[in-house]
Amino acid sequence: MTLLRRRPRRLRASLPLRAMVRETVLNRDDFIVPLFARAGREEAREIPSLPGQYHYSVGRLAREAKAIRAAGFPAVLLFGIPSRKDARGTSAWAASGIIQQAVKAVKDAAPDLTVITDVCLCEYTDHGHCGLVRKNGKTWDIDNDATLPLLGRTAVSHAAAGADVVAPSGMMDGSVAAIRSALDGDGRTATPILAYSAKYASVFYGPFRDAAQSSPRFGDRSTYQMDPANADEAMREIALDLEEGADVIMVKPALAYLDVLRRARERFDVPLAAYNVSGEYSMIKAAAEKGWLNERQAALEVLTAIKRAGADLLVTYFARELSDRLGP
Ligand code: PBG
Fold it and tell me: Which of 118, 121, 173, 177 has the most crowded CB, counting CB atoms within 10 A?
């Protein structure tokens, strides 16, 4: 007879036993549901690169938001697709812009749903960059500091429309400080900032850019989004955002950056969010469509891994589909 004192399999023998020793459980309260608002009367148009996700009219969006709250989710993250884009992204801060209308409608329909808004210019600029572009003969660059007041203005307009939390995603240096002082200057000292602190220049945003029609017309985002090769730098970015007044920090994308999430978890004692981005969603969808893997299992495994790595909050397009598999 083999004498093994240690047999890890003992605690895997049954479903209830496995549940008792499970270390990571996905709860409804961990989830932030991203939604896209678009002007116009067409109620819902499926986004081809994001199967199962839609562009919603404002009215329809409000009904979806209400259903999301009724399903027990605490928060949505809203993106707007404006009908008009220009070089400065003017409609990002227009009082009657698409996102401002969407926030109002959602807060009316579901007052206790936390509404988080994406604060960035890329959906609103005709060139598709996240900051103002300064042309210089044949070359161009991003005018970081001229962008900051516009981000402040945009955040204030979101808060004025009723947004509960603002989420700067443009990776401009100093954006958290600019937004904090703009909000405070408007008497909105209680509005938290969820900072996309470590946001990488990732190919996994591809489907989102189709959805938001926000691909840069020229160049790419690698002068402002982070190099996927760097993790120490992510710690510096997060530390800076916290110094500037960020309340919640985020790592994005999630799946290819689990080490960054883990390091952030160990280093910073603040709520940590992870964005399971569009490409991470669509690749599971596509493989499942081909019959190559089980979609729900794959989504649950990935999201559990993201939480296990250290994330407290998960932004994911899968949230609603997994509703029946989540804890309270
Ligand atoms: C920028 C923004 C992007 C995403 C969220 N906010 C796109 C980008 O940086 O190009 C990507 C989200 C996703 O891929 O799901 N406003």
Answer: 121
pTM of the predicted protein model:
0.96
Number of domains composing the chain: 1
Residue 210 has pLDDT above 90, yes or no: no
The two structure tokens encoding residue 108: 């009316």
Domain-embedded: residue 164: yes
Residue 53's domain is classified under what CATH number?
Answer: 3.20.20.70
Residues known to be catalytic: 199, 252
Alpha helices in 71-161 (DSSP H): 98-109, 144-161
Using DSSP's 3-state secondary structure scheme, residue 300 falls into: helix
pLDDT band at 209 (very low <50, low <70, confident <90, very high): confident
Could you tell me the pLDDT band of residue 215, with boundaries at 50, 70 and 90? confident
Which residue's CA is minimally distant from atom 8 of ligand 1? Answer: 205
The rounded distance, in Å, linking the Cα atoms of 85 and 74 is 31
**b/e for 29-50, b at 16 or more Cβ within 10 A?**
ebbbbbbbbbbeeeeeeebebb
Does residue 328 belong to any structural domain of this protein? no
Q: Provide the sign of the torsion angle of the four alpha carbons 257, 261, 267, 268, taken in this order.
A: positive
Residue 240: count of CB within 10 angstroms of its CB: 16
Asked whether residue 16 is assigned to any structural domain, the reply reads no
Q: Which domain holds residue 272?
A: 25-321
Contact 291, 238 (CB under 8 A): no
In the reported structure, the alpha carbon of residue 131 is separated from the centroid of ligand 1 by a whole-number distance in angstroms of: 14
Q: Please check whether residue 256 lies inside any domain of the structure.
A: yes
Cα(81) to ligand 1 centroid in Å equals 13
Residue 249 structure tokens = 């920090």
User: Beta-carbon neighbour count of residue 266 at 10 Å?
Assistant: 9
Task: Write out pLDDT tens, residues 294-326.
Answer: 999 999 999 999 999 999 999 999 999 999 999
Binding site membership of 36 for ligand 1 (Cβ less than 6 Å): no
Q: Could you give the CA distance from residue 240 to residue 219 in angstroms, rounded to a whole number?
A: 27
Burial 128-153 (b: 16+ CB within 10 A, else e): bbbbbbeeeeeeeebebeebbebbbb
